[in-house]
UniProtKB/TrEMBL annotation:
Database matches in Pfam families: RVT_2
Superkingdom of origin: Eukaryota
InterPro entries (alphabetical): DNA/RNA_pol_sf, RVT_2
Domain Reverse transcriptase Ty1/copia-type: 1-148
Name of the featured protein: Reverse transcriptase Ty1/copia-type domain-containing protein
Length: 473
């Protein structure tokens, strides 16, 4: 930063002005602003989260208020409108601010709400359109998957000749990757330009029922997929009531000499992430389920055994000590690690390219939906009595041109004091539905949920056909 003209002292030409407070443009400005905001908002009774410093909470009896800060953008969430108004009044007294009303966009993310269905959706379609135009991909061919199955990249594919290297200097590759990563970090764990163009209108959807908060984790690894240094790829995803809230795909720090070791490292990373996630959710007081152990699903029996029942074996003696932290996390009751078939592991797309059918099924399992595919709220008991379902607009998943399709319903049967609800409705290609059904049955086993499947014909729902669950109707 340079001193403005007109502040020179002819008698002391080597002296400069001393700043009495932070001003815009200093590298310390953002930190100074954050400290000032923190001081003022705490005066109003807010408490900073120990686990996420840009989240503040205020609890007063049954009234709950959350404040989320991103530099100078503020998002207020609460269950009492007068309290929210009082917070805004306080902020307007402390700072010059503009009230934009009910949140529709935040940081380029579109917010969809349907209170009657208990749903929230997040989409970055506008941002994706912007980066497509910036990198001249807005007229590109639309892709169905982020990356072709079987493709392996390595440094040996980089330009070798000076001519090719000079040509690549004009390609904004790093800028493109950075732009894609913002979408990936916010709402899209599945990215590539051609794929983003086809799927830019998808929402990351949460909710769909009044059930308490339920967190589930998945971890996976692909063995020595980096052809340059032979390191494996880890991936994990955590879902909250069906929508992804935390995910990561990264190359492992050390070389694994077996698939079991690679999967064990990935599961350890997932377990550590959940410790933070559990602490953060508990700090927000948003649900009782985080006080119980959550399931982390892994598709490798050896890794599950190593985590649950530690044993001395010559093939695993060399594993770095830091990865054994998962054993302590399991022992103290934070998580349970469970075996799951590979085709049902939702974290699979984070470690390798998949064929289209598998990729779309996993994307749907993490809450990625088109707006028109958001579930309808129906009374299952009345439908069962009538034996028919009304005609409804059908949400399509996959190739819409396929004629043979199946409608899949996920039902929560009501108890003595509750109605049963259809919480998920989707139309899948016939080729994909078998894996979808298997996944649904496996994941919902023992949780009081059922699957209902019926052939789709001409845009209407016909007689209901109930699948048997654990040998019972």
């Amino acid at each position: 930063m340079e001193q403005p003209e007109g502040f020179e002292d002819p008698k002391n030409p080597n002296k400069v002005c001393k700043l009495l407070k932070s001003i815009y443009g200093l590298k310390q400005a953002s930190r100074s602003w954050n400290l000032h905001f923190d001081e003022r908002i705490k005066e109003f009774g807010f408490t900073k989260s120990e686990f996420e410093p840009c989240v503040y909470t205020k609890f007063s009896g049954s009234v709950v208020t959350f404040l989320v800060l991103y530099v100078d953008d503020i998002l207020l969430i609460g269950n009492d409108v007068p309290t929210l108004q009082s917070v805004k009044s306080w902020l307007s007294k402390c700072f010059q601010m503009k009230d934009l009303g009910e949140a529709a966009y935040i940081l380029g993310i579109k917010i969809y709400r349907n209170r009657s269905k208990w749903l929230i959706g997040l989409s970055q379609s506008t941002y994706i359109d912007k980066i497509l135009k910036r990198f001249r991909m807005d007229e590109s061919k639309k892709g169905f998957i982020p990356m072709q199955h079987g493709i392996v990249l390595s440094k040996s594919q980089c330009p070798v000749s000076s001519k090719d290297q000079d040509r690549m200097k004009s390609v904004p590759y790093a800028s493109a990757i950075g732009s894609i990563m913002y979408a990936m970090l916010c709402t899209r764990p599945d990215v590539a330009y051609s794929y983003l163009r086809r799927t830019k209108d998808m929402f990351l959807v949460f909710g769909g029922s009044e059930d308490e908060i339920n967190v589930t984790g998945y971890s996976d690894a692909s063995f020595q997929t980096d052809r340059d240094d032979f390191r494996s790829q880890s991936g994990y995803v955590f879902t909250l009531n069906g929508g992804a809230i935390s995910w990561k795909s990264s190359k492992q720090d050390t070389i694994a000499d077996s698939t079991t070791e690679a999967e064990y490292i990935a599961a350890s990373d997932a377990a550590k992430e959940f410790v933070w996630l559990r602490n953060f959710l508990s700090d927000l007081r948003v649900g009782a389920s985080v006080s119980r152990p959550i399931d982390i699903f892994c598709d490798n029996s050896g890794a599950v055994a190593q985590a649950k029942e530690p044993r001395e074996h010559h093939k695993s003696r060399h594993v770095l000590r830091k990865y054994h932290l998962i054993r302590e996390i399991i022992e103290r009751g934070d998580v349970r690690i469970c075996k799951i078939p590979t085709e049902e592991n939702v974290a699979d797309p984070l470690t390798k390219p998949l064929a289209r059918v598998k990729h779309e099924a996993h994307a749907n399992s993490t809450g990625m939906q088109y707006l028109e595919a958001i579930p309808h709220s129906l009374n299952y008991n009345s439908l069962k009595a009538k034996k028919t379902l009304p005609s409804l607009p059908l949400p399509l998943v996959g190739d819409h041109s396929l004629k043979q399709q199946i409608v899949v319903f996920l039902i929560i049967p009501g108890g003595l004091a509750a109605r049963s609800q259809i919480v998920s409705v989707a139309v899948y290609p016939l080729l994909a539905v078998q894996s979808v059904i298997r996944k649904g049955v496996a994941r919902e086993k023992g949780k009081g949920k059922e699957k209902i499947v019926r052939d789709f014909d001409g845009g209407t729902y016909e007689d209901l056909l109930m699948m048997k669950r654990e040998g019972k109707e």
